């Protein structure tokens, strides 16, 4: 309760400062509407069917992208982390691809997969793979060699050692990577919708609100919804982490 109360006090202080600043006239309210106006628009949007469809489109694309990223990154991380020669052989290409901004690949993605939902899903997968992949690889590096040697001394093969020793030890790190990738995937989905346009989703809603009537209150309300989705997903994954891995300190290391 203390942590929650402090968070609420900090949020209330931020909103109060924003309200005072917006109504002071330093910046015209049409460019920076006060939070009271934004929150009113936020409540109205929750009853708007068209906006709810945009929200569902973004959340669905985010969930699909995150699921695909997990399905790709976890097995790839286990392979790279357990087979040194494959890891060293792919290091150069991985380190080359990892820093490339996903939004810079929007034109290429549109050409390759089209301008539909596939574009934002593909780019979100590309961005979300890396945190999970590297967390899985580094998790295998942190496994106690004594545990592996003990399992092998009992006649366990590589596959059984992977299932009974490596995976349980790596799981907290993998879930931490998933938490980071969840935020990254949401950012990429909304950003792609905003930059590519022409579809449905929160990003498209924000684009229409900003370029059409210039409704910054709607822009900020839509942004607030995206932030709440990201916050709730992170809290849910953190709760799973704490409940499933009470014995692990990875959640504390992740902040």
How is this structure best described in words?
The protein is mainly α. It has a single domain, classed as MetI-like (MetI-like fold, Orthogonal Bundle). 81% of the residues lie in helices and 0% in strands. The chain has helices at residues 2-23, 35-45, 49-82, 84-97, 106-113, 117-141, 145-153, 158-196, 202-211, 216-244, 250-254. Helix 2 packs across helix 10 (216-244), helix 3 packs antiparallel against helix 4 (84-97) and helix 5 packs across helix 6. The longest helix is centred in the last third of the chain and has 39 residues, at 158-196. It is globular. The two termini are 19 Å apart.
Topology summary:
Elements: H1 2-23, H2 35-45, H3 49-82, H4 84-97, H5 106-113, H6 117-141, H7 145-153, H8 158-196, H9 202-211, H10 216-244, H11 250-254
- And the CATH topology? MetI-like fold
Could you tell me the strand content as a percent range? under 5%
What is the assigned CATH homologous superfamily? MetI-like
Tertiary shape? globular
Percent range for helical residues? over 70%
- Mean pLDDT figure: 85
* Count of helical regions: 11
Radius of gyration: 22 Å
Report the biggest beta sheet as strand number plus sense, adding barrel if it closes.
none
Distance between the termini: 19 Å
**Count of the separate structural domains:** 1
Give unreliable regions as ranges: 250-255
The CATH class is identified as Mainly Alpha
In the CATH hierarchy, the architecture is: Orthogonal Bundle
Structural class: mainly alpha
Number of DSSP E strands: 0
What is the H-and-E element order?
HHHHHHHHHHH
Subcellular location: Cell membrane
Main location: membrane
Protein name: NitT/TauT family transport system permease protein
Membrane topology: Multi-pass membrane protein
